[in-house]
Write a structure and sequence with these properties.
The structure is a homodimer. Chain A contains 14 helices and 23 strands. Chain A is α+β, with helices and mostly antiparallel strands. In chain A, strands 3-7-8-14-11-10-9-22-23-21-20 form an eleven-stranded mixed β-sheet, sandwiched between helices. A five-stranded mixed β-sheet of chain A has the order 16-15-17-18-19, with helices on both faces. In chain A, strand 10 and strand 11 form a beta hairpin. In chain A, helix 2 crosses helix 6. The first copy, chain A, is globular. The model of chain A has no long low-confidence stretch (mean pLDDT 95). Strand 5 of chain A pairs antiparallel with strand 5 of chain B, so a sheet runs across the interface.
């Protein structure tokens, strides 16, 4: 019996990917369901990942002048209804508060599914002149959408996210902000989560309710399904007109500002699991992992082992590393398996035989590489090992992504691709929603994921209807 | 006309304290009401204070082993009802969700007024052995209580807070945690917010719903009213029994764990305003202020002034100081008044005459002291000036508090004190709720704020009924 069986076996990815996912989430204690149906507890191991995502993104936001705010969680029904497309998109999936204490409310309130209307109301009261612009706001909060089927991190009724909302004096400036925030998402996800993405613009049918344009980053999970991982929207002045948000421009004329919003959520934790995880559990990229190294004393009852392990722990802490030490009485095999299950990037084995030679063994979680390091050098070597691991994890995921992008120029070819392989299929498209619907129906669920910023010319005509093609689209089955 | 009139006059504190408070909140752009009645927008200037409170407290929590989690915002009615005292305390003031999308729910859900029951449910599923204990959790979130009358930061339907929840194998350990967290609140509020407090245990009538003991820190506002600023509760095993949370102890016997919770909210922003603010606006303690120094170039059109101001800004930023620069075209007087209104701890005036002598003028917000500093020394002197200012602000508030604590041994004396002066009145108390009610009625609202940890012996008998006294109590009118 393998040591890892001591921890608790995880279903193999190739046997049942959905079960593998649930096993990892449960056994690594990331989240669990509650008696509030479709709502989760974000447990310490899961929430700590979100805290690191928050800290990292928040810094990137603030470096571009974003200021954080907090808006009410409740929205009066009349306010939600002010922008037609928006309310049509969200009204069917909101939760309604009808009573406060023991009394029925005069007007019912919905729990925010997103907060565009509250920001517009705020701007209506606070924007007068071009000197007040731009307003570049963000909030970290939870939102609620009454989803029927839920999956941990990927889709739950309530989830945590950030929603940025901005208004600008000109269309150009608003569009530049939309693009800037998509770039931040792209860089954060690729650099810190080691997750490569394809990115571009959504087709009209996949746009956010009320937006003029929606941009997206799309990651590819190990099972070949896409996960929309962050979106940035340009709204034009539609909401501002609906909410009567106006400003006096430099020529002393009244104008409507141009608006953006952009959001990224705890779904990303699902992406980290499904891009990097393996049959032994979670594999966390060093730059986002709450604990970067677990020190595991072997034969910890030996005084020298305990002394060296404790000193190493203190030294690494003092050097600002995120490090933990497993001083439990479990077997080394159990401790190794537990560190692997939790996805801690490396373990530092401190054993009596190694100590005779003045070294410890560092084992990488992603490829099990063993690196012998002299005790004195651990503090300087560990950051280097973690940096290389981060880079290797990205490259591995990038290779996987590249190996799962194909193209099709005819429907039989497209159907064959979606029947026999997984990942993205590039194809030309006429611009009509009817063809997207047809492709979705025939492939059993593949949707247009994005029109990339750099389109290729694969053919002259739409893969579906044969009419002249307008764009190249990434199609894929998605979470 | 005084320069500050250019900004916008604030009602004087002595004229109308409530209006002064609203003026400061509004004109410093800390928060504003929304069409969701009784709910506020935390605007950037206000939210940034909360972010600093969060960062500072969160570090203090984590240093003691606290782990953050996130629980659902909705609680099924049946779950809320499991602990009798608790539901009696909160049911009258919760908001009820009755519909999801267009469909009525089978069971209605309340928006959390606090999350004890969700933590208990979680523990019921996750605690088995003494090895699983203690569990020391906290969450940063918003809660909602259906208050009838609201005031910015002090009382709103929805507010932001942290709620810590822990369970322990023994009563001693749980009581020690209750005390530890109260100590953290005390130290944080006194050291970082420069707000002195009186502290101790709540009487039974002022306890949290379901708690065995509630401990509190109580600050004194400039108008002589108390503000409960943080509470820490010991629950015994009552909730664990109601929720069937059990563990196997070291002797292999089943036991119920002992529980605590502790919370602190955005009320504290109200305390900062009302303890330190003056007739020119906000005065923020340096250790919690989002911006610690505002550089104000005087005659900014002069190239040398602009150069020195910009270099100073870059140098202070590089040194890790929280600094801003006012490059607007407003008059120096307007800029000074605006910096004062916002409560930024110091301004650094960069003017042509000073520059001839190679110096700048640093002006403290709290006492208007002007400190001449050579340009080269600003980076080293500024932290010193801020540290002294922090200490002075605390001492000033401490003197104010000490000057507003009196004592009474008879009811006529007590009534006279509450009629003619403001602040706390110390008095002996028999332990009966009837006397608390009587004191409240006769004084027009003074309640028992706390039984201090170090009681004095003022008399042998209760100030109200004349029966033997059990405790010394701080009485006060409170927000």
């Amino acid at each position: 019996m393998n040591d890892k069986k001591f921890v608790e076996a995880i279903t193999a990815r190739d046997v049942d990917f959905a079960k593998w996912y649930t096993d990892v989430v449960t056994k690594a204690k990331l989240c669990e369901y509650t008696s509030t149906k479709g709502c989760m507890v974000y447990m310490p191991n899961g929430y700590a990942i979100w805290e690191n995502i928050q800290a990292n993104l928040d810094k990137r936001f603030k470096d571009t002048g974003v200021r954080n705010v907090y808006m009410p969680m409740l929205i009066p029904e009349s306010l939600l209804q002010k922008e037609k497309d928006h309310v049509n998109g969200f009204a069917p999936e909101v939760a309604w508060v009808t009573h406060g204490g023991s009394e029925p409310l005069e007007e019912r309130l919905c729990i925010r599914p997103t907060s565009e209307v509250l920001f517009c109301e705020h701007w209506q009261k606070n924007v007068n002149s071009y000197r007040d612009l731009p307003m570049v706001y963000n909030q970290w909060c939870s939102v609620l959408r009454w989803e029927k089927t839920t999956r941990p991190f990927l889709r739950s009724k309530e989830f945590l996210w950030q929603e940025g909302h901005t208004i600008h004096a000109t269309q150009e400036e608003a569009e530049a902000r939309t693009e800037m925030m998509l770039n931040i998402y792209h860089d954060f996800v690729e650099e810190d989560l080691a997750i490569p993405v394809v990115w571009g613009r959504k087709t009209d049918s996949e746009k956010f309710a009320g937006a003029k344009a929606t941009y997206t980053i799309e990651a590819l999970m190990h099972d070949g399904k896409a996960l929309q991982s962050g979106t940035s929207h340009y709204f034009g002045d539609g909401f501002c007109k609906a909410f009567d948000v106006k400003f006096v421009n430099q020529d002393n004329k009244m104008e409507y500002p141009h608006q953006t919003s952009w959001g990224l959520s705890t779904r990303l934790i699902g992406a980290i699991i499904m891009v990097h995880g393996d049959d032994d559990g979670l594999v966390l990229p060093p730059r986002i992992s709450p604990v970067q190294a677990m020190i595991i004393p072997i034969a910890h009852q030996k005084e020298e082992v305990a002394n060296v392990a404790n000193k190493l722990y203190a030294d690494l802490k003092a050097a600002g590393m995120k490090v933990d030490i497993d001083l439990s009485k479990k077997t080394p095999g159990f401790k190794f398996s537990n560190q692997e299950l939790l996805g801690i990037p490396v373990r530092i084995e401190v054993g009596p035989r190694d100590l005779e030679n003045g070294v410890v063994t560092i084992v990488r979680r992603d490829n099990r590489e063993k690196i012998i390091v002299t005790i004195d050098e651990v503090v300087t070597k560990l950051p280097e090992i973690l940096a290389i691991m981060q880079k290797d994890m990205y490259q591995k995921a990038k290779d996987f992504l590249n190996n799962h992008i194909t193209s099709a120029t005819t429907m039989p070819e497209m159907l064959e691709k979606f029947a026999n392989q997984t990942g993205f299929v590039k194809a030309m498209w006429c611009g009509e929603e009817a063809c997207e619907d047809e492709i979705k129906a025939q492939t059993g669920g593949a949707t247009s994921r994005c029109i990339p910023f750099e389109e290729e010319h694969l053919a002259d005509v739409c893969v579906c209807c044969g009419k002249p093609a307008k764009h190249m689209v990434y199609f894929g089955k998605a979470y």
